[in-house]
Design a protein that fits this description.
Largest sheet: 8 strands, parallel
Strand order of the largest sheet: 1-8-7-6-5-4-3-2
Shape: globular
Order of helices and strands: EHEHEHEHEEHEHEHH
Number of strands: 8
CATH architecture: Alpha-Beta Barrel
CATH superfamily: Aldolase class I
Radius of gyration: 16 Å
Number of helices: 8
Helix content: 25-40%
CATH topology: TIM Barrel
Number of domains: 1
């Protein structure tokens, strides 16, 4: 990966106020969000429930931004098509939940969207090397998935650096967990180009300003706005 790359900021909808979801999406969209990150949890692969296909469809009605859909679920292949039909522009599955990851990559690719693979904090980078050339996105979890508001795990920086060395400029290295104005610069320096932030943006009284501050902290120019047709 090249050293100087534009940085994408992906607000995590999980931390938005769902009573004002359309309004909050509008705020971060106007504030320069590059895409939206949707955390789908099943209460089985991770110890929590979030939302499913109907909410993704409702979000798709609110915005043209690419819906970066992160399936933290035990059987991602079973539900991938439904999420794409609802408006997902990318589907990321967990390597820990994929019995046959190569087949899952092909299945998602045939749905016509970007394909991503994610790793939990305790999973080594080498776990995705068998499919790394076939995906569009590698998502490194820097907190244990299932709950928002956790602190960034510094020990994951080495994994980010390792993965950055195996990705092309056309691929994204996404990081999710504990990203804020204090951690963003270190994450970008390690090689990440897509930053998922939830509470750092939506817990603020002014989400658009918080997003702009996060981008300044990352020290990079804005990326191109991404829509679902991208």
């Amino acid at each position: 990966m090249s050293a100087a790359r534009p940085i994408r900021i992906a607000p995590s909808v999980l931390d938005a106020d769902f009573a004002r979801l359309a309004e909050q999406i509008g705020l971060v969209e106007a504030g320069g969000a590059d895409l939206l990150h949707l955390d789908v949890m099943d209460g089985h692969f991770v110890p929590n429930l979030s939302f499913g296909v109907p909410v993704v469809a409702a979000i798709a009605e609110c915005t043209d931004l690419l819906l970066d859909t992160h399936l933290m679920i035990s059987d991602p292949g079973r539900y991938a098509s439904a999420f794409v039909q609802a408006g997902a522009g990318s589907i990321t599955f967990h390597i820990e939940a994929a019995e046959h990851p190569g087949e899952l990559v092909r299945l998602i690719r045939e749905l016509g969207v970007k394909v991503g693979v994610s790793l939990n904090p305790g999973t080594p980078a080498e776990a995705v090397f068998g499919i790394i050339e076939d995906v569009d996105i590698v998502l490194v979890m820097t907190v244990w998935p299932g709950f928002g508001g956790q602190s960034f795990m510094d020990e994951c920086l080495e994994k980010i650096e390792t993965l950055a060395g195996h990705l092309s400029d056309a691929q994204w290295l996404e990081v999710d967990g504990g990203i804020n104005s204090e951690t963003a610069a270190r994450i970008v320096a390690a090689g990440a180009d897509t930053l998922v932030a939830g509470s750092a943006i939506f817990a603020s009284e002014h989400p658009a300003e918080a997003l702009a501050e996060l981008r300044r902290a990352a020290g990079q120019a804005p990326a191109r706005r991404l829509e679902r047709s991208a």
